[in-house]
């Protein structure tokens, strides 16, 4: 599955399918000036009278050598009629082949100082906080599985109590490096047995791991990416798993096993375990009949990327103010109707549609909406849609940059000056 949300940009507003990505910090959008760009809708800056160009160029090259470039500008963003003003945009005017053509752009929700390419921009959520649009400096993700009716949501400014029992059920863990949403993983379990780790993913079957492993919580990655030795250690304990070249694969019928919903790969975070059922690890079929790709794949990097395959089995909260990540078991109730998750309307936000009105007018009215679904005042809710990702592909170092933006950026960042990063972290004021 891929997840996207509808975001409006400019005045009058233009609608786009956007990937909400906690693994990057730029707001990247395809420009109408790009004749070869992916996506179905391209942003027309000349049609928005609130757009401001600053003339600065930007460019990025991903780990698979795909690349994009363009220029910077500012415009307003509308999320469920909440207006975020003066948001910096990275407009794409040129890109190489291999980008995802099902989305129009990426909204980065990592820490703004991550962005070297665009000079350390303020992210959309940081601007929401700066402009007083949210009551709390947190946002949270619920990614629906097909078995729960699909759909999902990202909530800005609070925690959706219809998805968790209560906030006391949230397990918090500190962000260890406030550029990415990077946390520590204490241990990895497969079907209740410890399989690894010492900080580099080396196998330590049957005993507690030594050093903690760094991990990045990343909604922009579909899979869970782990060091090579850890990938091997995990798959050794899953019946029928096999290595196919640079990828790991599982029997497709593993999802039909009577124990596929109870057997899990679990991560221990702050002394609590959070898991992925075996049934959710079975991905699309490979070229070999009956053999499917695994939801856990390997990387040469010495850290972990925790993607949607984990996040959709838990409720994940990102606390920008306190620099921490919260994880809670989902409250499973009746299956929601998918269409109920497509549009969550704000009751008459006053002037937000036109982009005009008095300063702060739409802010006050929209921020005080009572949602009637466990949401509290000061929370903004952007709904998600999902679509099947049936394209067969080999999950390796050459996969599409649009599907692995955060992994390639993470590897680039990991090769940087560690001492410089630590100094920046200590002095940051997010």
From TrEMBL:
From start to end residue, where is composition biased (Acidic residues)?
403-430
Q: Which InterPro entries match?
A: Aspartic_peptidase_A1, Pepsin-like_dom, PEPTIDASE_A1, Peptidase_aspartic_dom_sf
* Domain of life of the organism encoding this protein: Eukaryota
- Cite the EC number: 3.4.23.21
UniProt key word Membrane: no
Disulfides per UniProt: 252-292
Instruction: For this UniProt record, give its keywords in alphabetical order, as a comma-separated list.
Output: Aspartyl protease, Disulfide bond, Hydrolase, Protease, Signal, Zymogen
**Peptidase A1 domain mapped to chain residues:** 3-328
Listed under GO biological process in this entry are: proteolysis
Q: Which GO terms describe its molecular function?
A: aspartic-type endopeptidase activity
Cited Pfam families: Asp
**Active site residues of this protein:** 21, 218
Reaction equations catalysed: Hydrolysis of proteins with broad specificity similar to that of pepsin A, preferring hydrophobic residues at P1 and P1'. Clots milk and activates trypsinogen. Does not cleave 4-Gln-|-His-5, but does cleave 10-His-|-Leu-11 and 12-Val-|-Glu-13 in B chain of insulin
**Annotated segments matching region Disordered:** 349-430
Membership in a protein family? Belongs to the peptidase A1 family.
Output this protein's name.
Answer: rhizopuspepsin
């Amino acid at each position: 599955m891929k997840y996207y949300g509808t975001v409006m940009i400019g005045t009058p507003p233009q609608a786009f399918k956007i990937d909400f990505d906690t693994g990057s910090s730029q707001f990247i959008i395809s420009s109408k000036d790009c004749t070869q760009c992916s996506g179905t809708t391209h942003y027309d800056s000349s049609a928005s009278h609130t757009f401001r160009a600053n003339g600065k160029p930007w460019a990025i090259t991903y780990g698979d050598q795909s690349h994009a470039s363009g220029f910077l500008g500012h415009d307003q963003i509308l999320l469920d009629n909440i207006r975020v003003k003066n948001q910096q945009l990275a407009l794409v005017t040129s890109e190489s082949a291999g980008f995802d053509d099902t989305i129009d752009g990426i909204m980065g929700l990592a820490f703004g100082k991550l962005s070297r390419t665009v000079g350390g921009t303020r992210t959309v959520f940081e601007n929401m906080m700066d402009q007083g649009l949210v009551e709390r400096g947190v946002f949270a993700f619920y990614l629906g599985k097909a078995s729960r009716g699909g759909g999902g949501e990202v909530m800005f400014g609070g925690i959706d109590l219809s998805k968790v029992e209560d906030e006391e059920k949230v397990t918090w863990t500190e962000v260890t490096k406030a550029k990415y949403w990077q946390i520590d993983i204490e241990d990895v379990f497969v079907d209740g047995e410890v399989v690894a780790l010492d900080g580099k993913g080396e196998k330590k079957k049957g005993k507690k791991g030594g050093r903690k492993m760094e991990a990045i919580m990343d909604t922009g990655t579909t899979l869970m990416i782990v060091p090579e030795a850890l990938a091997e250690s995990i798959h050794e304990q899953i019946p029928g798993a096999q290595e196919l070249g640079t990828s790991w694969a599982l029997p497709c019928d593993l999802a039909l096993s009577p124990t596929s919903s109870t057997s899990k790969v679990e991560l221990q975070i702050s002394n609590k375990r959070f898991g992925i059922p075996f049934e959710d690890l079975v991905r699309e079929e490979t070229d070999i009949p009956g053999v499917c790709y695994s939801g856990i794949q390997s990387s040469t990097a010495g850290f972990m990327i925790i993607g949607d395959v984990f996040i959709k089995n838990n409720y994940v909260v990102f606390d920008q103010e306190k620099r921490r990540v919260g994880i809670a078991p989902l409250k499973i109730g009746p299956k929601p109707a998918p269409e109920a998750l497509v549009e969550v309307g704000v009751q008459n936000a006053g002037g937000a549609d036109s982009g005009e009105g008095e300063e702060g007018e739409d802010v006050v009215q929209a921020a005080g909406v009572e949602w009637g679904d466990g949401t509290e005042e000061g929370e903004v809710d952007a709904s998600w849609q999902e679509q099947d990702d049936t394209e067969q592909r080999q999950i390796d170092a050459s996969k599409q940059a649009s599907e692995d933006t955060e992994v390639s950026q993470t590897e680039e960042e990991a090769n940087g000056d560690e001492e410089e990063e630590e100094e920046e972290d200590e002095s940051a004021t997010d």
